[in-house]
Each structure stands twice: as structure tokens, then as C-alpha cells.
């Protein structure tokens, strides 16, 4: 079984667990705590079983200095889109990425309430799977699209939209804005449903790593607003990403701050 098959299975298991927890009737504060905790524990246990030589960086676990010398690092977000999870929406995700040399090379985003998994291996393929009761159906290849002459779509955050993002989109010309939560915005770009996803405020590496790998595998680019590469595994920066832009058309990423 390949790494992305392993990761897809793990993310799917964590997603099913999150659905069960949400259906349990817990109070919102307990729901968030249990969702983060149980999903994280399941993922870390399964990755340790499947890939014992790899290091893991998770939003919900203390960083292990061993990670600094590891050839490969898994970056884990066991529950992305907490607000959507608590509100009963279907947009929350489980995100897993493999990092080598500070660069995401594979990413998996599972949306359990939608019954979908998106995954990509940079330089090889990107695809979408539909989850069934007895597993997943055949994977469908996905790809980004070139910037359209008209009808461009921007995936934007429902909860974190800000004036800087508004100004950036205004410079692009007529762009339809599609609001949602969690890493699903990367999935929109990767499968050609959106052309750009700007996040011009600080976020964390575990919110971005899987999405970057997916978008790049599908033919796009994820960079700083200046068109530079993002860095991952940066403990000195508290694993913060100041800003990024995901482009479906990789050619648009050069000088994207103009």
C-alpha cells in the first residue's frame, strides 16, 4: 500500500470518528475538545504503526525535537474547520501532509460529512475519491484550470475574510467569491472549481501543508503574496504562515502581490 493510500485510510478513519463524536450530543466545548483529542490520538497511533520511522508534527501535540533530524515529517491537522464542525455543517476536514526538506510532497484532505477525499502526490497525480459504506470508489483524476477570460472564481474564508483579501481580489478584476470553511478551499482550486484562494492573514502550517501539496500536484501553485515559496517545519516561527495565495494557474503566482 502506498503512502497516500495509507494516509487516505487514516484520514477516513479519523473522519468517521469525528462524525460519531458530533452525533453523540456533547456540549459545544466538549465536542471540540473530544473531536481534537480523539482524532489526533487515532491519527498518531495509526501513523506510528504504518510508518514508524517518520516524525509527526500535529496541531494537537507538543513538538518533538526528533522531528528536526527526520527525513520525512507528517504534518497533521486532526480537525480543520472547527466552527463548521460545531455548527453542524459539512465543511470540516482532516488534513495530512508529508514533508521532505521543508516542502510538502503529498497531501490528503478528507471531508467525512461530504463523503469525499482529495489527495495528491507532487509530480505524480491528484485525485478525488467518493467514500462508500464499504470503502471508496475508483479515484477520479483532478486538475486545476488556466485562468479564465471571464468567470474567474475565488475561494474565500467564511470566517476569516478581511479587508486585505477584499483589496487583493478587487485588483484581479471581476471574480465571483465562493465562501466556505476549512481546507476545502484548496480542494476547490485543485479540481478546477475555483481559480484562486488567498489567505492574507496569519495561519498555521498544518492548515496549509496538505492543501499546498494537493494544489501543486493538480497543476497549481501555493506561494507567498510575493510569489515566493512557503517554508514548513519552522519551529522558530511557531509554525506560523504569515500569508499565502493558492493559484490554479501556476503562471499567475509570479509577482502575485501586484
Report on the structure:
The protein is of the alpha+beta class and about 260 residues long. It has 2 domains: about 5-140, 2-Layer Sandwich (Fructose-1,6-Bisphosphatase, Chain A, domain 1), CATH 3.30.540.10; about 150-255, D-Maltodextrin-Binding Protein, domain 2 (3-Layer(aba) Sandwich), CATH 3.40.190.80. Helix content is about 30%, strand content about 30%. The chain contains 6 helices and 15 strands. Strands 1, 2, 3, 4, 5, 6, 7 and 8 form an 8-stranded mixed β-sheet that branches. Strands 11-15-13 form a 3-stranded antiparallel β-sheet, sandwiched between helices. Strands 9-10 form a two-stranded parallel sheet. Strand 4 and strand 5 form a beta hairpin. Helix 1 (about 5-20) packs antiparallel against helix 2 (about 30-50) and helix 5 runs parallel beside helix 6. The chain is globular and about 45 Å long. The mean pLDDT is about 90.
CATH architecture label of the largest domain: 2-Layer Sandwich
Radius of gyration: 17 Å
CATH class category name of the largest domain: Alpha Beta
Low-confidence stretches: none
Strand content: 25-35%
What is the CATH superfamily label of the largest domain? Answer: Fructose-1,6-Bisphosphatase, subunit A, domain 1
Helicity, in percent?
25-40%
Total of DSSP H or I helical runs spanning 4+ residues: 6
Structural domain tally: 2
* Secondary structure tally: strands: 15
Amino acid at each position: 500500500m502506498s503512502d497516500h493510500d495509507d494516509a487516505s485510510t487514516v484520514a477516513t478513519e479519523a473522519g468517521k470518528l469525528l462524525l460519531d463524536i458530533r452525533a453523540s450530543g456533547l456540549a459545544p466545548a466538549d465536542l471540540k475538545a473530544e473531536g481534537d483529542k480523539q482524532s489526533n490520538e487515532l491519527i498518531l497511533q495509526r501513523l506510528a504503526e504504518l510508518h514508524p520511522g517518520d516524525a509527526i508534527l500535529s496541531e494537537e501535540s507538543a513538538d518533538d525535537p526528533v522531528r528536526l533530524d527526520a527525513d520525512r515529517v507528517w504534518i497533521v491537522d486532526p480537525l480543520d474547520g472547527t466552527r463548521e464542525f460545531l455548527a453542524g455543517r459539512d465543511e470540516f476536514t482532516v488534513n495530512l501532509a508529508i514533508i521532505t526538506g521543508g516542502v510538502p510532497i503529498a497531501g490528503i484532505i478528507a471531508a467525512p460529512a461530504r463523503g469525499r477525499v482529495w489527495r495528491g502526490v507532487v509530480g505524480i497525480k491528484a485525485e478525488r475519491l467518493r467514500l462508500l459504506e464499504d470503502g471508496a470508489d475508483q479515484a477520479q483524476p483532478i486538475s486545476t484550470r488556466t485562468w479564465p477570460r471571464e468567470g474567474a472564481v475565488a475561494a474565500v474564508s467564511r470566517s476569516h475574510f478581511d479587508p486585505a483579501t477584499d483589496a487583493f481580489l478587487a485588483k484581479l478584476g471581476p471574480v465571483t467569491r465562493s465562501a466556505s470553511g476549512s481546507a476545502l478551499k484548496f480542494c476547490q482550486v485543485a479540481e478546477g472549481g475555483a481559480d484562486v484562494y488567498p489567505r492574507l492573514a496569519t495561519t498555521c502550517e498544518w492548515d496549509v501543508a496538505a492543501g499546498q501539496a494537493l494544489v501543486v500536484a493538480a497543476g497549481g501553485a501555493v506561494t507567498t503574496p510575493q510569489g515566493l515559496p512557503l517554508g514548513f517545519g519552522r519551529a522558530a516561527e511557531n509554525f506560523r504562515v504569515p500569508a499565502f495565495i493558492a493559484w490554479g494557474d501556476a503562471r499567475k503566482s509570479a509577482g502575485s502581490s501586484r
